[in-house]
TrEMBL record:
This is DUF1206 domain-containing protein. It comes from Corynebacterium efficiens (strain DSM 44549 / YS-314 / AJ 12310 / JCM 11189 / NBRC 100395). InterPro entries: DUF1206 (IPR009597). It comes from the Bacteria. The chain crosses the membrane at residues 32-52, 82-103, 115-135, 155-176, 208-229, 249-270. Keywords: Membrane, Transmembrane, Transmembrane helix.
């Protein structure tokens, strides 16, 4: 009976892996998933643009350099809600593609990365659907509320500090990926050749470094929020960028990071064409 159970388990695992491989290679899914990278690129361009406006003092009081701020900008444009529904579909497809990588991944690292990124893309798809329906939300308020809820639980401080260290680690990883140009492994062979390839590598390098700085600051703020038991410190990406802007020469630094985020957006759009799928 035990041998049969093990055989059934192996058979089910092979079936799941075959289904995941088929889903990963399905033309419709991969095409829509590439569209998800375009959506991510547009969002980063808008976040970077808002950050530059904040740094130069030309932004409005309600501007938020975050996904929510970028989505609100799209929603206010002509045909914005239709475009947001298109974005929901593309982001959901990107999440499904990452999920197929989780199921078909050959090692633990691939599976873990697929799981995390799938959750990120599905979560962003849900947030985008809120704006597509005519609603709104704020990344900063959501982050503050979630942090306050966690801090009120047993071991809440530890959990928030650990979460901050994870985000800080993501920032360091992005810095490393940009500085070493390790992101080239995500692209098809030959994507880094010629003038177009050189432009992709330059935008990717600058973009990952900028993301690394932004997430690094955010991670530190979340750690401070847990240590000081102050959820207001963990107010999301917009808060992290504004904190950078408040430092000596902060406006210049914020402009540089904002431009870097715009370049990451350009890289992400190019990645839609050249990503290894």
């Amino acid at each position: 009976m035990g041998a049969m159970d093990k055989g059934d388990t192996r058979s089910a695992k092979r079936t799941i892996e075959r289904a995941a491989d088929q889903a990963e290679d399905h033309p419709a899914l991969t095409t829509l998933a590439r569209g998800g990278f375009i959506v991510l690129g547009i969002l980063h361009i808008l976040i970077g643009w808002i950050a530059v406006r904040i740094a130069t003092g030309s932004g409005g009081s309600g501007d938020e350099a975050s996904n929510s701020g970028a989505l609100a900008t799209i929603a206010e444009a002509p045909g914005g809600q239709f475009l947001l529904w298109v974005a929901v579909i593309a982001l959901a497809a990107l999440g499904l593609w990452q999920l197929s990588q989780l199921l078909a991944g050959e090692d633990l690292k691939e599976r873990a990365k697929g799981a995390v990124m799938a959750m990120v893309y599905f979560s962003l798809a849900v947030t985008t659907s809120t704006f597509a329906r005519g609603g709104s939300t704020s990344d900063g308020e959501t982050a503050t509320d979630v942090t306050a809820t966690v801090l009120s639980q047993p071991w809440g401080v530890v959990l928030v500090v650990v979460a901050g260290l994870v985000v800080l680690g993501a920032g360091v990883y992005n810095l490393w990926k940009g500085a070493t140009r390790d992101f080239r492994e995500d692209l098809e062979a030959g994507a880094g050749s010629g003038q177009v390839g050189t432009a992709i590598i330059i935008t990717g390098t600058a973009g990952y470094v900028a993301r690394g700085i932004a997430f690094g600051i955010l991670g530190v703020l979340i750690v401070i929020a847990g240590w000081a038991h102050d959820p207001e410190q963990a107010a999301g990406l917009d808060s992290a960028l504004r904190t950078l802007g408040e430092q000596p020469f902060g406006s210049v630094l914020l402009i540089i990071v904002g431009i870097g985020l715009i370049l990451y957006g350009a890289y992400s759009i190019a990645r839609a064409r050249y990503v290894r799928m």
